[in-house]
What we know:
Elements: H1 3-23, H2 26-39, E1 73-79, E2 86-93, E3 99-106, E4 111-116, E5 121-123, E6 132-139, E7 143-153, E8 160-161, E9 164-167, E10 174-178, E11 181-182, H3 198-235, H4 260-288, E12 305-307, E13 313-314, E14 318-327, E15 334-344, E16 358-360, E17 366-368, H5 371-377, E18 393-402, E19 410-413, E20 422-425
Parallel strand pairs: 12-20
Antiparallel strand pairs: 1-2, 2-7, 3-6, 3-9, 4-7, 5-6, 8-11, 9-10, 13-14, 14-15, 15-18, 16-17, 16-19, 19-20
Helix pairs in contact: 3-4
Amino acid sequence: xxxxxxxxxxxxxxxxxxxxxxxxxxxxxxxxxxxxxxxxxxxxxxxxxxxxxxxxxxxxxxxxxxxxxxxxxxxxxxxxxxxxxxxxxxxxxxxxxxxxxxxxxxxxxxxxxxxxxxxxxxxxxxxxxxxxxxxxxxxxxxxxxxxxxxxxxxxxxxxxxxxxxxxxxxxxxxxxxxxxxxxxxxxxxxxxxxxxxxxxxxxxxxxxxxxxxxxxxxxxxxxxxxxxxxxxxxxxxxxxxxxxxxxxxxxxxxxxxxxxxxxxxxxxxxxxxxxxxxxxxxxxxxxxxxxxxxxxxxxxxxxxxxxxxxxxxxxxxxxxxxxxxxxxxxxxxxxxxxxxxxxxxxxxxxxxxxxxxxxxxxxxxxxxxxxxxxxxxxxxxxxxxxxxxxxxxxxxxxxxxxxxxxxxxxxxxxxxxxxxxxxxxxx
Length: 427
């Protein structure tokens, strides 16, 4: 054995033995400490440094969202099949004790009440030009109270939506809300409107891109077939051969590829069509997400919709229903409270944020939700802290702080920053 190899092996053995002897004293020490601790159970054990534990094999489950408790007071509204707008409101107390509540039915602008049951009154709240019908009730335990209203409007035979809410004794915290739309029995059901704008043109753009791709594939296949036919004709022994060819193995033919003059135009056409369609669609979508001025008209997810008070409006993940908007009297900074119903229509938990909810004034300026005032209106609960459970529904107040005497003209609500959201006009 050469001397160099013998020296290397000797050095490796020495290093290995030194490492083993260095680690060997740790084992008896740990065993002795464990034995001493076991023999003296009442003695204080000296903490030993430990290695960090490995992550669990199964990930820790995320926090389960607790579903909202059912309100002890619930509301149901149903339109009557009459020639003039008429509604029946049922207020149910599911509690074992009496409950003091205030029931309000919002009337659209230009609509008045001609008949009100159970001592209700037609009033005009501050900051609003519309009228509402108000009842102050003491609901018996486990009871249902029925209220009726008959309305009058100048726009005959037009659908009329009049939502109703039951509030706590303070008149601000909603128990529950419901809505219904009266339709003249003699009128026909309106036809759904057709989608307009770039959303209707998206299928055409996609079809054009697919057509370009199909044409390119067909042209490539035709070129390959023609090349193979020409090569086969040249290689065959057809009539007109004067001298027989010697039988010799043919060299393997090299696989032919399409020429550059064919590949480049086809690839450029397909790429230009695809990139152009994607860029045009993305430009239109990004332009519609204007976070600094007027209400948006669309976004990456869902279709933007607009409606009035009491009309359920669906966006990407949530269904929003604005039942009532009222502002405090004053000329400086004042608070406007919107009673909003939020329903999660997806099979997953969904988070939403107060900064995405806006109230627009007549001059085009807007404010977001006053989260501190909204928390106080919700009895100290931060409604944006936890995501909404799948399939759940909440009725809650949102508070907006505005400057000046003008009340908000429009509310814009959305579940996420890329959602198209909904817009509700405020009378």
